[in-house]
Amino acid sequence: MNAIRLRRDPRAERAARLVPGNGRLRYDMSATPYERMTSPSGRLRRDPRAERQRLLTTGRDGRARLVRSGLVGQMTGISTASARTVKKIRVEKPEFFIVVVPDLPDGRLDRADRQLLGAARKLADGGEGAIVVVGAAVDAPSLGQAGADRILPLADGSDPDARVAELVAVMEALSPRHVLIPESEEGADLARRLAARTRLGLLPGIEVLGPKQAIRPCGAGRQEWAGGLAPLMTLAPDRVPAWQGEEHEILPLEKTPVPSGPVQARMRVGAIRSPDPATMNLGDAPFVVAAGRGVTDFESFRATVKALHATPGASRVVCDNGDMPRATQVGASGTILDALCYVAMGIAGAPQHLQGLGRVEHVVAVNTDLHAAMVSRAGLAIIADAQAVMPVLCEILAAEYGEKRP
Amino acid sequence: MKAVILLSLGIDPVSGRPAPVPGEIRAIGLARALGATQMIGLHAGSARSVLAEYGGYGLTQIVCLKGGETDPVQALADAVKGNSLFADGAPDLVLAASRGRGGSDMGLLPYQLAQALGWPIATDIVAPLEEPTAVGELLLAQSRARGAVKPVSVMLPCVITVPDTARCVPAFVFALQRTTQMDEQTVTVHSAPTDEGVGDNGMLRPYRRRPKLISGASKDSGGGQLMVDPEPHEAARAIVTHLRALGVLPDPDQAPEA
Amino acid sequence: MLGRTGLLAAGLVWGAAGALAVSAVPAVRRWRKGRRNPKDMIRGLATVPRRYMVDVHHAVQRRKGAAPMHALVAGGTLAGSVVLAAGVVPALRASRLYWSGAGMFFLAALGGTYLVWKRRNPKKPSYLSGGKFLWLPNAMLAWNLGGALVALVHVTLPEQNSIALVPLVLMAAGGAGLVVQVARGPMRHAFSGVTWLAAHSRPERFGGGRSTDLRPLDLAAPTLGTLIPGDFAWNILASFDACIECGRCEQHCPAFAAGQRLNPKALIQGLALSARGENASAYTGSPAPNAPPTAGQGSMTSAIIGVDAMIHPDTLWACTTCRSCVEQCPMMIEHVDAIVDLRRGQTLMLGEVRPGAADALRRLRDTGESGGRPLSARADGLASENVPVLTQDGETDVLLWLGDGAYELRYARTLRALVKLLRLASVNFAILGEAELDCGDLARRLGDEATFQDLATEVIGTLNSRRFHRIVTADPHALNVLKNEYPVLGGKWEVLHHTTLLDELVSSGRLKLDARDLPAVAYHDPCYLGRYNGEFDAPRRLLAAACKTTVEMEWHGRQSMCCGGGGGNPVSDVDAELRIPDIRMGQASEVGAAIVAVGCPGCTAMLEGVPEPRPEVKDIAELVLEAVVPA
């Protein structure tokens, strides 16, 4: 008896033949719905990469979306075509203020900051509110596009308590209805310092924010608290969309805070120190280049890792063979990565290994096997011999960076 | 150095069973790494058996402040300032988890305690930094994303919070847990003044998982660019271009990283 | 003096016997420093001849030539010497028959002596030790040749028996050598072995029985497990001295084969040396492969494990608890018990476990699951099968214990096959669903008896609150714990491995199989099913009914080799040269197997982790399902 019976799914086959277009449904009947692949024991193998590719489209906000309903064409961009109005929104006589304290890494609004402003906009537009961004100087247009109405520059100090004192002065001057801070490393700390100092209510790590209600997880993430808003709130990342509406005009602030007196310095926070990629903990490394069975020349591999300024990793087999130290093993029985980018040199991608990719965002695979699991996980897949690619990669990097990189 | 470790009643996020809070376990390890010679666990509330598990991680004495749960900040501050914990004077350090696990999980209490004690608070500390520092100061490594650290120098006495990601996990020794001494003291605190703005207007319910926003630049799970049998040079060039687009490789004209 | 050489010879034997008796005194004194463990020695000693002739002999004869050697040299020397000792009776000394009898025995012993010499000559095999062993044949030769010549003189020239003084001197020298070998050398094995066989910690093993369960620990005891030799029970200390360094354990140890820093023989010798306060340099066999050096010094009251002690910690965590060494040991030494005792000391008293194991133990304590996965997700792989969950109100015939393999996609496939088979055979069954916790196997093998007992208490409570007739599991580790280790804690049920149940269903005709024409299939015995629970036949019967071509690996059945997945080995970050599953798959390929049949989630995961090309890995349940003929 054969335990696996092949079943046709006419709906899925139809969806698979759908050709992405602008607004009209088109089917390519010559396309095979699935490339049927079988394992040695006769089990069917899916091709998740191809299946995903078929479902991928671009949403109206320009973000990548997966459409599983089969109506790919109908979901594609509309907003891009609409003409942009030149007029900016002005909030001239605000009834209240919402103070937003973005992180501004490198002096620019990041993704979380923009989402914070989007959330603030929701609260401000419930009435006639104005958003005051408190932070280092940022160019007005980008702030306006993100939804801000006022800017209040803040000195950048090394003592978090001094920063809190400055914010307290701002709050005394403006009496904001809410203060919004991102639940990021720096923001989370600042918000709690502020709450402890002012004894104002704090709702940290909000995941759902409306004009009247906020929801945040608690109880070890098994419960959530839903209730009214608080004076101080921090926003979890990727929960509230950034401001997509018209640009706001930055107007001068009506009130200026009285500078606070000097704070007794009890602590100093120094400049951030990045770890050496060659020796840092693999689980923390942002950029990992790993070798698998497709790599035979480990001198060349190590040179490539060094040239890329990456952290070395390896598959289990490579560690078993003693070609790379055990500490570099990626996978369920090794290290689970949290990298931004993972370059897999000659790694087929056994399930145990793929488990180690955990939260890796981008994968580059160099492998000779087109059907390797790693290839289907990769954002850039190169079907080639890693041994041949590595030296050329080193050459290119050496030529471009010369002596500038260690 | 004398250290107080704040202990709470944690639960395991997956199973919901009572379990020690990871940050508090690591706080014990960090206190040891900072050279604490005496350590006491302090819990605002009645003694519970789950607290005994901290004993296995190296706390030989745990003090529970029965009745302190109505205003933990005041109860803890009184206990720390009251000089009754250690025979030979006030503690130099109070360590806590950056976040609790099982309660409100706000991570606010250590800040409020620092405020009540008038002590500075250093947060997300994962290790001591072995560098020269002034007398009466601690130099600590504050954990930041992707393995980076910020040096934090802080005056003693101080409050320190420890994140779940710190590596200073002390070994669990069952034999130690057996000998841990758990004392319960009854304390009286005035009922807590509720923080301005957050009333009892909320409700607790089971957590609902909601989809996060995905960005165009987030996680690729296949469906990317595919090159079959390119020339090695072409392949290497594609990798460099791709890595630059992701921002993990700097542009050649940019100043190199240190 | 003239004419009295016969009496002298008898005196010599008595003297040697006296010297041997005196030499045993320090050993007995040493053992008495161990933990008290009263044993009925009279009854024990009475069983020794049978235990020796049956159980020990079975193990000895597995190595070619070993049994005849022992029979000749031990039998000949003992018998010859006893006969000589009887020469104190004047009438015997006057009899030629008596002397020729003695001579025959010594001649036999000489043959045995030659065999002893031949073992290490011209080249000593790696599994045997050197040192004092190298001159042992000389002492035997001197004693036995001397004895034979004395007898010869008395037979041929009884009137001029003073000539016998020359061989008597030779015999005396040999006797002195043998006394040294027993008092201070490896031949202490003779006396210690008898003591150990009489006071064995698992007497159930003799006469073909089985005893494999780990014993519960009193968690209120001052010392938990073993830190110093004095923490071992006295008879266990005797068992270490009983080791004759034959190296059978070493030859069959999967960890040793993979270069995993463990050599069971070196371990037992290390324990014996620690107890005797000797230096590690006194051991002359192969060391634990790649183990970093230690101080190599110990005493009855100092730590055994540690870089500054006798045995390196890595050695302890390299063991897969497969019991292969125990199975092979002719002296019936309990290596795994010793290792688990030492692990208990390290884990419970010192918290010295490997980081990966510490994480797993923490998860077990806090979540009741070694991977920290939700208990509700265990049966996710069976979602398509709609298996009923047994509640406190329900009742079922078979309770299916899923085990932690169920979380893996691969093993869920096996479980689905099993569920389909149970349905086909109309078996009434159910699962525990969310109420199933980890059974505690991993915690116990890692020495964390406290966590094991916590888990076991909870599991037993759950199972005692449900109504079912028997438990069936596809996980031999769970089988072993539920069946053998829970009874003393208050959980007694009939527990079966799924192959046992399937075999029952096939032989009773409730499942009909049509053997398929597959490429050669080899069955890999899981340690915890075979050696631990004696189930070798049911899986083979099933396999024979489901597949036309079956082959056996060289190491199979009782001699089967571990997959490397037991004893917490996979979570203990063990350093190795090779991987145990790679070696095992190599053995399967050697006999031409294209499919390896398994019956354990651990084996499945380990053997499937071997890089391809390799034989395909299939659970017996999967192979049986494919061969089922619909009724």
UniProtKB/TrEMBL annotation, chain A:
Occurrences of domain Electron transfer flavoprotein alpha/beta-subunit N-terminal (ranges): 98-271
SMART domains: ETF
Family matches, as InterPro entries: DHS-like_NAD/FAD-binding_dom, ETF_a/b_N, ETF_a/FixB, ETF_asu_C, Rossmann-like_a/b/a_fold
Keyword list, A-Z: Electron transport, Transport
Family statement drawn from the similarity comment of this UniProt entry: Belongs to the ETF alpha-subunit/FixB family.
Protein name in UniProt: Electron transfer flavoprotein subunit alpha/FixB family protein
Organism: Acetobacter conturbans
Automatic annotation (TrEMBL), chain B:
Database matches in InterPro entries: ETF_a/b_N, Rossmann-like_a/b/a_fold
Pfam families hit by this protein: ETF
Chain positions covered by the region annotation Disordered: 185-206
Keywords recorded for this protein, A-Z: Electron transport, Transport
Residues in Electron transfer flavoprotein alpha/beta-subunit N-terminal domain copies: 26-166
SUPFAM superfamilies: Adenine nucleotide alpha hydrolases-like (SSF52402)
Superkingdom field: Bacteria
Protein known as: Electron transfer flavoprotein subunit beta
Automatic annotation (TrEMBL), chain C:
InterPro entries: 4Fe4S_Fe-S-bd (IPR017896), 4Fe4S_Fe_S_CS (IPR017900), Csal_0991-like_N (IPR021872), Cys_rich_dom (IPR004017), HdrC_iron-sulfur_subunit (IPR051460), Helical_ferredxn (IPR009051)
Record carries keyword Repressor: no
Membrane-spanning segments: 6-28, 71-92, 98-117, 138-157, 163-183
Annotated 4Fe-4S ferredoxin-type domain residues: 234-265
Protein name stated in the entry: DUF3483 domain-containing protein
Assigned keywords, A-Z: 4Fe-4S, Iron, Iron-sulfur, Membrane, Metal-binding, Oxidoreductase, Transmembrane, Transmembrane helix
